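Reopening this one. Same input as before:
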Amino acid sequence: MPQKNWQVIVISPNPEAAGELRPVIASELGGAAVVVLAGYPEPDKLHELPLTSMPTVCFLDAASNRAMALPLLMAMTARPGDLHVVALVGAADPNLILQCLRAGAQEFLTRPYTAEQMRQVVDKLSRLSPSLRGKRGQITLVIPAKGACGATTVAANLALHLQRIAEGRVLLADLDPLTGTVSFLLKLRSPYSFLDALQHADSLDADLWKGMVVPAQGIDVLLPPENPVDSIQGLPSPAAVLDFARRSYDHVVVDVGSIYGEWTVSIARVADQVMIVSTNELSALQAASRGMQYLEDAGITNQKTRLIINRFHPDSGLSKELIEMALHTEVHHVIPSDYTNVQRALLDGRAIPTTTGIGRSLLALAEGLAGKTVTETETLRKPSASGVLSNSLNSLLKAFSRG
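Same output, byte for byte:
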């Protein structure tokens, strides 16, 4: 059911009828955003309706005042855009039902409103309107546990590899308004950034979006502003932009600069998975531990988060097993350290070649996201837990404890 892909507007001057409809909407469209208007808008002021970029289903009360409802219905169905109207006709009134259908209503509901009626209406609208069938691309948020963990390199390579191995379109979105570096990494420039997308979030369409993104190596890239903004505080929620992206792409990879703040949390809430990128150095792992606790406290479930260990070197830092023991978290993926090939790819502005160990590891991470069978590409040497790590293991576990 395409619940989260819909916006619902209820227009009814009858509070009793609107009140009866709300639980029925919730039962079948529990994930939809619902707006209730207690009066009929003027037909020539439909631009004032609280419409977003999402497909919108309007339940219009045609029974309370036919003289006002029918002209409004005709104006709404003549309006360009992704707006679908269901008439509320009160008791089964064949004449009113026929008038509403002739005026452009796609369906109707009669009182008493029931979940079964709503289910039939939703199913019919979904069959008639492709936009309501709710294509939902997968959103992957990539966050560094702390600075210089290589999260942007991981995000960019993930998007480029997804383009090669997965079906459909891929978007790489750098939503870091302060230190975004995807443009530098891929050698891209544009007069537009995600700030422009935020500004036009309520009116985004395919043509407008095409001018805001930059095509690069088979993917689309939404860049950060060239000049850093003064503050992340006060930026509008990115939810509407991400929803538009979800409906336009099969895979959306989002890069942000910090794990902390409402901006990142708001993106994490709509993402399908959140990849926290750390190294196996103690300071980075401690930051990852604190960051995962912060996201959990903000309501981001543990089932959504994935710990990625980047720049792994078996002779320094903690082993995968010790990381899992210390952080009480499964390590989702380990990417080996390879400074030389990372720098070569950076100079070329391209993905790290899959002929290298690090390239194969990043490809395997993308294959997992795309639902493909992943084979082990490298066997990581397990360092001995002797010496300092062994002698102070109890202190180490205590330092990383999130309990």
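So the earlier flakiness isn't reproducible anymore. For the record, The chain has a mean pLDDT of 86.
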